[in-house]
Amino acid sequence: MATTDSGHPEELHCSFCGRSSREVTSLIAGKGAYMCDICVQNSVEILRKNQPTPTLGSDLGSLPKPSEIKAQLDAYVIGQFAAKEVLSVAVYNHYKRIQAEGLVSPFDDVEIEKSNILLLGPTGTGKTLLAQTLARILDVPFAIADATTLTEAGYVGDDVESIIVNLLQNADYNVERAERGIIYVDEIDKITRKSDSASITRDVSGEGVQQGLLKILEGTVAGIPPKGGRKHPEQPLIYVNTRNILFICGGAFEGLEKIITRRMRPASIGFTAGVNSTPEETSKLLRNVEPEDLMRFGFIPEFIGRLPVVTALDPLSDEAMMDILTTPRNALVKQYQKLLLLEGIQLDFDHDALLWIVSKAKSRRTGARALRGVMEEIMNPIMYELPDKTNIRRCIVTKDTVERKGPPLLEVTEAAKNSARTGA
After folding, report:
1. Which of 390, 357, 363 minimizes the C-alpha distance to 376?
2. pTM for the model
3. CB neighbours (10 Å) of residue 160?
4. Which helix (DSSP H) or strand (DSSP E) does residue 86 occupy?
């Protein structure tokens, strides 16, 4: 430590801010200079703010092409080829539009509008999974919102701006990253106008919510409470621009096929949507949806205009359900096989057992979601008992197993077989 002429220790000061050693917790000594802990913290903050935000690359070459996006969707989502093509192009154009901002081109006076997406299709056909997988492919934040919980501002329920909160949280409160994320709004068909006639009571979960969503879908700066919940005057807000957030809305739209049929009947033959319509017939009709059909269903014109890309998902056939059960990377059979492999046990299913699982799931009429419920009922007893058993090499689930007529077939290890032969 330096000393004065009188021999007393000289008081040290930070070379950057001038604070004395008495005013700070610690001083870091360098060659002819000192830096206090306050300046160190400030330097770290400056460096963190100046680091590039981890978003999609600034060059278009870093963005997967539509064919590449679809190929990656194929690895997780079975079937729905038409919907995947539409989604791949829409998502590619959306992020290409973001990356092109600020670039000089002959079309600088042309503004490319955001293309939010509307997915039509019965429950369990993969609407949510498609949106989740797109976010994973593009490495952007993702959030799911349930439209049935939303109400008009000032009423009990969630404000429409609350759907941004989850996205911001999933982006670790990185606003720039959140502003390039994807939000999937489920059950969007449940916020239609309840009636075309005037009503004494307000439709706080129907047209009012549609009106509230308009600005967010198009692009606005939304003030978000950091921890969610209701706003109040003294609460600090985080401001998020929704201009580049991609919104994907989905719903079953039960009854929409009848509206389409009434419109098409005078000029079309072969389209029917009676009480006993098959899922395949309903899917064909939904592919012919027009904005006027959605208006008759209960959406206001301005809301429909914010969702220009519309595509319908196909009902799941038996073959598609079997593929979902066994083929994708996240297939249920593969998940259970991995879980049992951690116990050192190989898990196999007889083909007849898989057919029974598909048939049981289809009878529940909730699409691919029912597969997990059926598999849980079958596998829970097996996975409860197997850890207590020793020397098990292989477990085979048969048709008798799934029908609860008998236990699964168990094969022991070679060591256990030899031990049994020698009587050890």
Report:
1. 357
2. 0.70
3. 26
4. helix 81-99
Burial class (CB in 10 A: 0-12, 13-18, 19+), 285: buried
Instruction: Tell me the Ramachandran region of residue 229: left when phi exceeds 0, alpha when psi lies from -120 to 50, beta otherwise.
Output: left
CB atoms within 10 A of CB 377: 13
Distance separating alpha carbons of residues 300 and 153, to the nearest angstrom = 18
pLDDT digit string, tens, across residues 366-408: 888 899 999 999 999 999 999 888 889 999 999 999 999 999 9
80: left (phi over 0), alpha (psi -120 to 50) or beta: left
Is there a contact between 188 and 278 (Cβ–Cβ < 8 Å)? no
155: pLDDT strictly greater than 50: no
> Count of CB atoms within 10 A of residue 244's CB?
18
The residue among 321 and 226 whose pLDDT is bigger is 321
Whole-angstrom distance, CA of residue 91 vs CA of residue 65? 10
The neighbour count for residue 21, using CB atoms within 10 Å, is: 17
Q: Higher confidence at residue 91 or residue 198?
A: 91
pLDDT band at 60 (very low <50, low <70, confident <90, very high): very low
Query: Roughly what angle, to the nearest 10 degrees, separates helices 351-363 and 318-326?
Result: 120
Residue type, 223: G
- DSSP E strands in 140-234: the ranges are 142-146, 182-186, 221-224
Q: Do the bridges between strand 246-251 and strand 346-349 make them parallel or antiparallel, or are there none, so unpaired?
A: unpaired
Burial of 355: CB neighbours in 10 Å, binned 0-12, 13-18, 19+: middle
Q: Quick one: tokens of 66?
A: 């539509």
DSSP single-letter state for residue 61: G
Element (H, E) at 347: strand 346-349
At 287-298, the pLDDT tens digits run: 889 999 999 999
Q: Which amino acid is at 176?
A: E
3-state secondary structure of 334: helix
| Summary mean pLDDT of the chain | 81
Give the pLDDT of residue 360: 94
| pLDDT band with cut points at 50, 70 and 90 for residue 315 | confident
SS (H, E, C) 118-161: EEECCCCCCHHHHHHHHHHHHCCCEEEEEHHHECCCCCCCECHH
Predicted pLDDT of residue 48:
61
The separation between the first and the last C-alpha atoms of the chain, rounded to the nearest angstrom, is 78
